Amino acid sequence: MAPAIHIGPGEPEHLIRAVEEGGGRPAALEEAEGIVWAGPEDDFPELPSSVRWVQLQSAGIEPWIDRVRDTPDVQFTSAVGAYSIQVAELALGLLLAGVRGLNRYARAWSWDPHDEGTLQGSTVAVIGAGGIGRELIRMLEPHDVKILAVTRSGRDGTLPVERIGEIWSKADHFVLCAPATDGTRHLIGAPELWVMKSHSWVINIARGSLIDTEALVQALASRIIGGAGLDVTDPEPLPDGHPLWASPHALITPHVANPPSAMDRDLAKRVTENVRRFAAGEDLLAPVNPDRGY
User: Fold this and answer.
1) Is 207 a catalytic residue?
2) Within a domain: 285
3) Contact, 253 vs 106, CB < 8 A?
4) Going edge to edge, which strands form the sheet with 53-56?
5) Per the residue annotation, which of 236, 249, 276, 277 is the catalytic one?
6) Do residues 182 and 133 share a domain?
7) Is 20 known to be catalytic?
Protein backbone atom coordinates (compact mmCIF):
# COMPACT_ATOMS: atom_id res chain seq x y z
CA MET A 1 0.00 0.00 0.00
CA ALA A 2 1.27 3.48 -0.85
CA PRO A 3 2.58 5.27 2.24
CA ALA A 4 0.63 8.35 3.37
CA ILE A 5 2.85 11.43 3.07
CA HIS A 6 1.86 14.86 4.35
CA ILE A 7 3.31 17.78 2.38
CA GLY A 8 3.64 21.19 3.93
CA PRO A 9 3.28 23.99 4.22
CA GLY A 10 0.80 24.69 1.44
CA GLU A 11 1.16 21.46 -0.58
CA PRO A 12 3.40 22.77 -3.40
CA GLU A 13 2.51 21.12 -6.69
CA HIS A 14 6.07 20.02 -7.48
CA LEU A 15 6.28 18.16 -4.19
CA ILE A 16 2.88 16.54 -4.66
CA ARG A 17 4.14 15.18 -8.00
CA ALA A 18 7.40 14.09 -6.39
CA VAL A 19 5.60 12.13 -3.68
CA GLU A 20 3.32 10.44 -6.20
CA GLU A 21 6.23 9.59 -8.52
CA GLY A 22 7.98 7.95 -5.57
CA GLY A 23 4.96 5.75 -4.94
CA GLY A 24 3.50 7.73 -2.05
CA ARG A 25 0.04 9.12 -1.44
CA PRO A 26 -0.38 12.78 -0.38
CA ALA A 27 -2.33 12.76 2.86
CA ALA A 28 -3.58 14.86 5.75
CA LEU A 29 -1.26 15.26 8.71
CA GLU A 30 -3.49 13.16 10.99
CA GLU A 31 -2.97 10.01 8.92
CA ALA A 32 0.58 10.62 7.72
CA GLU A 33 3.40 8.10 8.00
CA GLY A 34 5.90 10.56 6.59
CA ILE A 35 6.17 14.32 6.14
CA VAL A 36 7.84 16.37 3.43
CA TRP A 37 8.40 19.80 4.95
CA ALA A 38 9.42 22.75 2.80
CA GLY A 39 8.97 25.47 5.42
CA PRO A 40 10.77 26.87 8.46
CA GLU A 41 11.11 25.06 11.77
CA ASP A 42 8.92 27.64 13.51
CA ASP A 43 5.89 26.56 11.46
CA PHE A 44 6.47 22.84 11.85
CA PRO A 45 3.40 21.07 13.29
CA GLU A 46 3.18 18.71 16.23
CA LEU A 47 3.66 15.19 14.96
CA PRO A 48 1.03 12.51 15.31
CA SER A 49 2.28 9.15 16.57
CA SER A 50 1.88 7.66 13.09
CA VAL A 51 4.77 9.70 11.64
CA ARG A 52 8.04 7.78 11.26
CA TRP A 53 9.96 9.99 8.83
CA VAL A 54 10.40 13.71 8.05
CA GLN A 55 12.13 15.02 4.92
CA LEU A 56 13.55 18.55 5.26
CA GLN A 57 14.27 20.87 2.32
CA SER A 58 17.63 22.22 3.54
CA ALA A 59 21.08 20.70 3.74
CA GLY A 60 21.95 22.69 6.87
CA ILE A 61 19.81 21.62 9.81
CA GLU A 62 21.00 23.86 12.66
CA PRO A 63 17.48 25.15 13.51
CA TRP A 64 16.19 21.58 13.62
CA ILE A 65 18.67 19.97 15.99
CA ASP A 66 16.54 20.33 19.14
CA ARG A 67 13.48 19.07 17.31
CA VAL A 68 15.39 16.03 16.03
CA ARG A 69 16.72 15.24 19.49
CA ASP A 70 13.28 15.58 21.05
CA THR A 71 11.74 13.05 18.62
CA PRO A 72 14.19 10.11 18.58
CA ASP A 73 11.57 7.73 17.17
CA VAL A 74 11.24 9.80 13.99
CA GLN A 75 13.88 9.61 11.25
CA PHE A 76 14.69 13.07 9.89
CA THR A 77 16.46 13.36 6.55
CA SER A 78 18.06 16.50 5.13
CA ALA A 79 18.78 17.58 1.57
CA VAL A 80 22.53 16.99 1.90
CA GLY A 81 23.92 16.21 -1.53
CA ALA A 82 20.79 17.24 -3.43
CA TYR A 83 22.10 20.68 -4.36
CA SER A 84 25.79 19.86 -4.78
CA ILE A 85 26.26 20.85 -8.42
CA GLN A 86 24.88 24.37 -8.28
CA VAL A 87 26.55 25.22 -4.96
CA ALA A 88 29.91 23.88 -6.13
CA GLU A 89 29.43 25.88 -9.34
CA LEU A 90 29.20 29.14 -7.40
CA ALA A 91 32.18 28.17 -5.22
CA LEU A 92 34.27 27.65 -8.34
CA GLY A 93 32.99 30.92 -9.81
CA LEU A 94 33.92 32.92 -6.71
CA LEU A 95 37.34 31.25 -6.56
CA LEU A 96 38.15 31.92 -10.21
CA ALA A 97 36.86 35.49 -9.99
CA GLY A 98 39.01 36.22 -6.97
CA VAL A 99 42.18 34.59 -8.23
CA ARG A 100 41.86 36.36 -11.60
CA GLY A 101 41.20 39.75 -9.99
CA LEU A 102 37.62 40.25 -11.15
CA ASN A 103 36.80 41.82 -7.79
CA ARG A 104 38.97 44.80 -8.75
CA TYR A 105 38.13 44.91 -12.44
CA ALA A 106 34.38 44.90 -11.75
CA ARG A 107 34.83 48.00 -9.59
CA ALA A 108 37.21 49.81 -11.96
CA TRP A 109 36.35 53.06 -13.71
CA SER A 110 39.44 53.20 -15.91
CA TRP A 111 41.71 50.87 -17.93
CA ASP A 112 44.19 49.65 -15.32
CA PRO A 113 45.67 46.17 -15.91
CA HIS A 114 47.13 44.28 -12.93
CA ASP A 115 49.40 41.26 -12.72
CA GLU A 116 46.80 38.88 -11.31
CA GLY A 117 47.33 35.23 -10.47
CA THR A 118 45.99 32.06 -12.04
CA LEU A 119 44.37 29.00 -10.56
CA GLN A 120 46.50 26.62 -12.59
CA GLY A 121 49.24 24.97 -10.56
CA SER A 122 47.91 26.15 -7.20
CA THR A 123 46.92 24.12 -4.15
CA VAL A 124 43.28 24.35 -3.13
CA ALA A 125 42.11 23.16 0.28
CA VAL A 126 38.53 21.87 0.23
CA ILE A 127 37.32 21.77 3.82
CA GLY A 128 34.44 19.36 4.04
CA ALA A 129 34.44 16.79 1.25
CA GLY A 130 30.79 15.78 1.36
CA GLY A 131 28.52 16.12 -1.66
CA ILE A 132 29.42 19.75 -2.41
CA GLY A 133 33.10 19.28 -1.71
CA ARG A 134 33.35 16.20 -3.91
CA GLU A 135 31.52 17.96 -6.73
CA LEU A 136 33.86 20.95 -6.43
CA ILE A 137 36.90 18.67 -6.55
CA ARG A 138 35.53 17.19 -9.78
CA MET A 139 35.04 20.67 -11.24
CA LEU A 140 38.59 21.65 -10.30
CA GLU A 141 40.17 18.72 -12.16
CA PRO A 142 40.59 20.53 -15.51
CA HIS A 143 42.40 23.41 -13.80
CA ASP A 144 45.52 21.40 -12.93
CA VAL A 145 45.42 22.11 -9.20
CA LYS A 146 46.54 20.08 -6.22
CA ILE A 147 43.71 19.29 -3.80
CA LEU A 148 43.99 19.12 -0.01
CA ALA A 149 40.65 17.72 1.12
CA VAL A 150 39.70 17.70 4.80
CA THR A 151 36.98 15.46 6.22
CA ARG A 152 35.81 14.60 9.71
CA SER A 153 37.26 11.07 9.60
CA GLY A 154 40.02 11.33 7.01
CA ARG A 155 38.29 8.85 4.71
CA ASP A 156 39.43 8.01 1.18
CA GLY A 157 42.86 9.56 1.55
CA THR A 158 41.61 12.91 2.83
CA LEU A 159 43.12 14.72 5.79
CA PRO A 160 41.29 14.12 9.09
CA VAL A 161 39.99 17.21 10.82
CA GLU A 162 42.46 16.67 13.67
CA ARG A 163 45.23 17.63 11.22
CA ILE A 164 43.52 20.65 9.74
CA GLY A 165 46.15 22.94 11.24
CA GLU A 166 48.59 21.67 8.61
CA ILE A 167 46.73 23.21 5.68
CA TRP A 168 46.64 26.92 6.51
CA SER A 169 50.23 27.63 5.46
CA LYS A 170 50.36 24.94 2.74
CA ALA A 171 47.40 25.72 0.51
CA ASP A 172 47.07 28.70 -1.80
CA HIS A 173 43.29 28.94 -1.52
CA PHE A 174 40.54 27.61 0.76
CA VAL A 175 36.94 26.61 0.11
CA LEU A 176 34.64 25.99 3.07
CA CYS A 177 32.06 23.26 2.45
CA ALA A 178 31.70 22.00 6.03
CA PRO A 179 28.47 21.96 8.08
CA ALA A 180 27.82 24.47 10.84
CA THR A 181 28.37 22.75 14.19
CA ASP A 182 29.87 23.74 17.53
CA GLY A 183 33.14 22.26 16.31
CA THR A 184 33.26 24.30 13.11
CA ARG A 185 32.34 27.69 14.56
CA HIS A 186 35.11 30.18 13.68
CA LEU A 187 37.05 27.43 11.97
CA ILE A 188 38.90 30.27 10.29
CA GLY A 189 39.88 33.11 12.60
CA ALA A 190 42.87 35.34 13.16
CA PRO A 191 45.38 32.50 13.87
CA GLU A 192 44.48 30.78 10.60
CA LEU A 193 44.26 33.92 8.46
CA TRP A 194 47.59 35.27 9.63
CA VAL A 195 49.53 32.20 8.44
CA MET A 196 47.90 32.07 5.00
CA LYS A 197 49.73 33.26 1.93
CA SER A 198 49.32 36.86 0.89
CA HIS A 199 47.57 35.83 -2.35
CA SER A 200 45.19 33.34 -0.67
CA TRP A 201 41.47 33.52 -1.32
CA VAL A 202 38.97 32.15 1.19
CA ILE A 203 35.64 31.01 -0.28
CA ASN A 204 32.65 30.28 1.96
CA ILE A 205 29.53 28.66 0.50
CA ALA A 206 28.72 26.74 3.71
CA ARG A 207 27.63 28.83 6.71
CA GLY A 208 28.75 32.27 7.88
CA SER A 209 29.66 31.01 11.36
CA LEU A 210 32.65 29.10 9.97
CA ILE A 211 34.57 32.38 9.67
CA ASP A 212 35.29 34.93 12.39
CA THR A 213 33.96 37.97 10.54
CA GLU A 214 35.86 40.55 12.60
CA ALA A 215 39.14 38.74 11.98
CA LEU A 216 38.36 38.50 8.26
CA VAL A 217 37.64 42.24 8.01
CA GLN A 218 41.00 42.96 9.65
CA ALA A 219 42.83 40.50 7.41
CA LEU A 220 41.36 42.07 4.26
CA ALA A 221 42.07 45.62 5.44
CA SER A 222 45.67 44.70 6.30
CA ARG A 223 46.13 42.77 3.03
CA ILE A 224 47.08 39.66 4.98
CA ILE A 225 45.28 37.54 2.38
CA GLY A 226 44.28 38.10 -1.21
CA GLY A 227 40.55 38.19 -0.65
CA ALA A 228 37.33 36.45 0.30
CA GLY A 229 34.40 35.18 -1.74
CA LEU A 230 31.33 34.85 0.47
CA ASP A 231 27.89 33.52 -0.32
CA VAL A 232 27.17 33.29 3.42
CA THR A 233 28.09 35.71 6.19
CA ASP A 234 27.90 36.21 9.93
CA PRO A 235 25.67 38.11 10.56
CA GLU A 236 23.28 37.23 7.77
CA PRO A 237 21.87 39.12 5.99
CA LEU A 238 25.00 41.25 6.02
CA PRO A 239 23.85 44.70 7.20
CA ASP A 240 24.06 47.73 4.93
CA GLY A 241 27.22 49.67 5.72
CA HIS A 242 29.13 46.65 7.01
CA PRO A 243 32.90 46.93 6.34
CA LEU A 244 32.85 43.85 4.11
CA TRP A 245 30.69 45.69 1.57
CA ALA A 246 33.33 48.40 1.25
CA SER A 247 36.30 46.05 0.93
CA PRO A 248 37.65 45.90 -2.63
CA HIS A 249 39.03 42.47 -1.75
CA ALA A 250 35.66 40.86 -1.03
CA LEU A 251 33.16 39.31 -3.41
CA ILE A 252 29.77 38.87 -1.76
CA THR A 253 26.67 37.12 -3.06
CA PRO A 254 23.49 37.09 -0.91
CA HIS A 255 23.19 33.34 -0.16
CA VAL A 256 22.17 32.50 -3.72
CA ALA A 257 24.33 29.44 -4.41
CA ASN A 258 21.14 27.42 -4.60
CA PRO A 259 18.63 29.39 -6.75
CA PRO A 260 14.95 28.71 -5.95
CA SER A 261 14.21 27.17 -9.35
CA ALA A 262 17.08 24.71 -9.03
CA MET A 263 16.21 24.04 -5.41
CA ASP A 264 12.63 23.09 -6.30
CA ARG A 265 13.82 20.77 -9.05
CA ASP A 266 16.47 18.99 -7.01
CA LEU A 267 14.42 18.78 -3.82
CA ALA A 268 11.69 17.08 -5.85
CA LYS A 269 14.22 14.51 -7.08
CA ARG A 270 15.33 13.82 -3.51
CA VAL A 271 11.73 13.53 -2.30
CA THR A 272 10.86 11.05 -5.04
CA GLU A 273 13.84 8.86 -4.21
CA ASN A 274 13.32 8.95 -0.45
CA VAL A 275 9.59 8.25 -0.77
CA ARG A 276 10.46 5.25 -2.94
CA ARG A 277 12.96 4.05 -0.33
CA PHE A 278 10.53 4.68 2.52
CA ALA A 279 7.84 2.64 0.77
CA ALA A 280 10.32 -0.19 0.13
CA GLY A 281 11.74 -0.18 3.64
CA GLU A 282 15.21 0.78 2.39
CA ASP A 283 17.77 3.11 3.99
CA LEU A 284 16.91 6.76 3.35
CA LEU A 285 19.29 9.27 1.80
CA ALA A 286 20.91 11.88 4.09
CA PRO A 287 19.69 10.74 7.53
CA VAL A 288 20.27 13.43 10.16
CA ASN A 289 22.65 12.52 12.98
CA PRO A 290 21.91 14.84 15.91
CA ASP A 291 25.17 13.96 17.65
CA ARG A 292 27.19 15.19 14.67
CA GLY A 293 24.89 18.13 14.00
CA TYR A 294 24.16 17.26 10.35
Assistant:
1) yes
2) no
3) no
4) 25-26, 4-8, 34-37, 53-56, 75-77
5) 236
6) yes
7) no
| pTM of the shown model | 0.92
**Rg (the chain; Cα; Å):** 21
Number of structural domains found in the chain: 2
Q: What is the pLDDT of residues 185-243, one digit of tens each?
A: 999 999 999 999 999 999 999 999 999 999 999 999 999 999 999 999 999 999 999 99
- Average pLDDT of 278-292? 95
Could you read off the pLDDT of 135-171 as tens digits, one per residue? 999 999 999 999 999 999 898 889 999 999 999 999 9
Say whether both 13 and 102 belong to one domain.
Answer: no
Active site residue 236: yes
How far apart are the C-alpha atoms of 118 and 115, rounded to whole Å? Answer: 10
Whether residues 108 and 246 fall in one domain: yes
- Collapsing DSSP to helix, strand or coil, 148 comes out as strand
Residue tagged active-site, from 67, 134, 207, 270: 207
CB atoms near residue 238 (< 10 Å): 20
| Residue 54 · residue 77 · CB < 8 Å | yes
State pLDDT tens for residues 2-54.
999 999 999 899 999 999 999 999 999 999 999 999 999 999 999 999 999 99
Determine the angle formed by the axes of helices 13-21 and 260-280, rounding to 10 degrees.
30
223 lies in which domain range?
Answer: 84-252
CA distances 289 to 65, 74, 155, 274, Å, are 9, 12, 18, 17
Q: Check whether residue 91 and residue 134 sit in a common domain.
A: yes
φ, ψ dihedrals at 36, nearest 5°: -105, 115
Output the CA–CA distances (angstroms, integers) from residue 45 to 67, 87, 148, in the order listed: 11, 30, 43
Structural domain contains residue 286 = no
Which of 17, 199, 255, 276 is catalytic? The answer is 255
Q: Lowest mean pLDDT: which of 67-71, 171-175, 290-294? A: 290-294
